[in-house]
Design goal:
Elements lengths: L7 H26 L10 H55 L6 H21 L3 E2 L2 E2 L7 E4 L7 E4 L4 H8 L7 H54 L3 H28 L3 H5 L1
Helix pairs in contact: 1-6, 2-3, 2-5, 3-4, 4-5
Length: 269
């Protein structure tokens, strides 16, 4: 049938051309953004999964920062304990010197004067803090969460340097007998300090492994998210070329369909 009111070929060509133009714009958007999913229309399920993965990645980054801050806390703590070790070792040396029977009372009093100054320095170290958090007050351990979901954690110790100070604060090496007693007391204090530093080292090691695991998890999550959201440039470029050809062909066919009805005029002349 030949008619002039209805041109179904033109309508079909216009419909196909419209769809091609929409898909062409979507392809251009994917290539320009580098993302396969630019709206929920592109892939509703993939977008939902990607949102969850993205949130997990952000939490992992935040957890990494927290773990690294905890490592800095422990490193600062160990630095203070190292200074405490130097102080107590010097006191131990002075106590051993005080056991020398050839030393006069004046000599021993001079040793005791230095010991008193060193003890004051040790007491000052006990009050050190990291960002306002006491380093060495022996309080309840601090809990550091080492997984983005909060399911794993490590407790770090606020080493009790004050207890060691209390143990040795009364040493008196102004006599040979006092110096000998001080050697025994300070030897025990050194053992306690060694335990604190060993604990600190083990906690640093544990947090270092946790930080490494978080870095690996973040990489894997980013890779998983990328497989969902990142556009395949080669594949999409081929699709763009196909759509460009379809657009040109659709435009030409729409012109042909519109031109076809012109033949009706020949029947009317």
């Amino acid at each position: 049938m030949i008619s002039i009111n209805t041109n179904s070929a033109s309508s079909a060509a216009a419909y196909n051309l419209s769809n091609t133009n929409v898909n062409l714009q979507r392809s251009l958007q994917k290539l320009s953004s580098g993302s396969r999913i630019n709206s929920s229309l592109d892939d509703a399920g993939g977008l939902a999964v990607s949102m969850k993965l993205s949130a997990s990645i952000r939490r992992t980054e935040a957890t990494q920062a927290n773990v690294n801050n905890a490592l800095s806390f422990l490193q600062t703590q160990d630095g203070v304990l190292k200074n405490a070790d130097s102080i107590i070792s010097r006191i131990s040396e002075l106590a051993s010197l005080g056991t020398d029977v050839t030393k006069s009372s004046s000599d021993l009093n001079l040793y005791q004067t230095e010991v008193s100054s060193l003890l004051s320095a040790l007491d000052d170290l006990s009050g050190e803090a990291f960002n306002g958090i006491p380093l060495l007050d022996g309080a309840t351990p601090l809990t550091v969460y080492t997984s983005e979901d909060g399911g794993q954690s490590v407790d770090i110790t606020a080493a009790a340097l004050g207890d060691i100070y209390d143990d040795i604060s009364g040493v008196d090496i102004s006599s040979n007998s006092g110096a000998q007693a001080a050697v025994t007391t300070i030897t025990a204090a050194i053992e306690s300090l060694a335990t604190l530093r060993a604990t600190n080292g083990s906690e640093q090691s544990r947090l270092t492994f946790a930080a490494d695991m978080l870095a690996v998890n973040k990489t894997n999550l980013e890779a998983a998210n990328g497989r969902i959201t990142d556009v395949d440039i080669a594949s999409e470029s081929a699709n763009l070329a196909r759509l460009n050809i379809l657009q040109q062909a659709g435009t030409a066919m729409l012109a042909q369909a519109n031109q076809a009805n012109q033949s009706v005029l020949r029947l009317l002349v």
